[in-house]
Amino acid sequence: MSLVAGVDSSTQSTKVLLVDAETGEIVDSGRAAHPDGTECPPEAWWDALQEAGRGLLERADAVAVSGQQHGMVALDADDRVVRPALLWNDTRSAPQAERLTAEHGGPASWAADTGLVLAASFTATKLAWMAEHEPENAAKTVSVMLPHDWLTMKLRGATAADATTDRSDASGTGYWNPHTGAYTTERLIQAFGRELAVPRVAAPNETVGRTPWGAAVAPGTGDNAGAALGLGLGPGDVAVSLGTSGTVFGVSDVPANDPSGLVAGFADATGRFLPLVCTLNAARVLDTFRTLLGVDHAEFDALALSAEPGAGGLTLLPYLDGERTPARPNATGVLAGITTGATRADLARAAVEGMLSAQADGLAAMAAQGLEARRVLLIGGAAASEAVRRIAPTVFGVDVEVPPSAEYVALGAAKQAAWALSGRDNPPQWKNGDTERLTGTAASVSEQYATLRNETASWEKHQ
């Protein structure tokens, strides 16, 4: 039996799955936490990988890393890390995103060249921030890569000169073109002021090197592309993933080109494309309101489900930590419609409906790009919430399927490792088990939410 290891290096932790390469059966697993915050020393990811993978990695015949997208890992001429990596959820580069967009062609030009309209999440804006605010660190920097690229390089014992990435992660930088499959050096120079060395973009099923124990190393992938591969998404499938961030994504044969910036034109892990909408606020919205209400998960779910749809008129705009989609990095949360009749149950319900309404906006934006959801799959940590599962169909207005709980990002990385090991043309087809199908009647929640969202945007614009 051949075994493969799939690594999910996320914002919060590293998960490692040891998987049977033929069947997809999980043989063993490990986990280790990451430091909290919006920047992180990459060495902490490596330490977490060693801890989570202890007793697992050395048993694998192949390994792949799926990692959080967009993070900026800057290296000097000796391949030393210049500064802690700025993560995707660090919004300090919002002014640089606005400046680069305004000075270099506008949103439509960036979307045509990179598939993206710049927001603070993307690597190009973080490079621009460092060049402007940390010129000494910028002067030391000779190469830049993404979190999964750096970990893949470490697993191989390689140097930055031999570093690799994949299409999915390259497509989230702001200096790679999904139409041509090549870096747009001009955009990198516009962001940083000069050219930098970047990893080679490997083929999806390529073996890019070997570990010290001889295992094949696959290119790895971005976390959302890893989840899509792990889920086995097909045409018409749209996943709504509720983790630290909320993401809405599906597989397409053509790249997205959305000058509004709502839909990012990412690539997937198989050679196709992965149009995606991302919000900064998802599971943590529920965590915040559980804390405010002083209840545990089960009590929170019971409260939310005991309230009527519409939460008695309470509506939450869940931009607690700023927002990426829509691009409102300095926004805060807004709770509207409070009266003397408001209850704790209404507050819990409003939190769930607000968080899900932000994802419903993502489904609408995807449909506008031609990817109409025939099936919505609900995944991520918050999908374990009974309230989220039962309320989602009423907010989305479509039936929802919940696959069996699994680490789909790590499973996707394992599937890519098995693909590289097999040498076949297509990735293996593993069964994920039966899904739970949930139906519901669409409520007027979306109207309440849209009204508050638009009124708040108008108010911010005139400040």
UniProtKB/TrEMBL annotation:
Active site annotation, chain numbering: 223 (proton acceptor)
Pfam families with a match to the protein in the record: FGGY_C (PF02782), FGGY_N (PF00370)
Main EC class the enzyme belongs to: transferase
Binding locations of substrate: 69-70
Reactions this protein catalyses: D-xylulose + ATP = D-xylulose 5-phosphate + ADP + H(+)
Entry superkingdom: Bacteria
Record-annotated Carbohydrate kinase FGGY N-terminal domain positions: 4-220
Matches recorded under CDD domains: ASKHA_NBD_FGGY_BaXK-like
InterPro entries, alphabetized: ATPase_NBD, Carb_kinase_FGGY, Carb_kinase_FGGY_CS, FGGY_C, FGGY_Carb_Kinase, FGGY_N, Xylulokinase
Keywords from the named record: ATP-binding, Carbohydrate metabolism, Kinase, Nucleotide-binding, Transferase, Xylose metabolism
GO biological process: D-xylose metabolic process; xylulose catabolic process
Gene Ontology molecular function terms on file: ATP binding; D-xylulokinase activity
Important for activity, annotated site positions: 8
Domain Carbohydrate kinase FGGY C-terminal: 239-421
EC number(s) per entry: 2.7.1.17
Function noted in UniProt: Catalyzes the phosphorylation of D-xylulose to D-xylulose 5-phosphate.
Family under the similarity heading: Belongs to the FGGY kinase family.
Protein name per the record: Xylulose kinase
Organism: Glycomyces artemisiae
Phylogenetic classification of the source organism: Bacteria, Bacillati, Actinomycetota, Actinomycetes, Glycomycetales
Originating gene: xylB
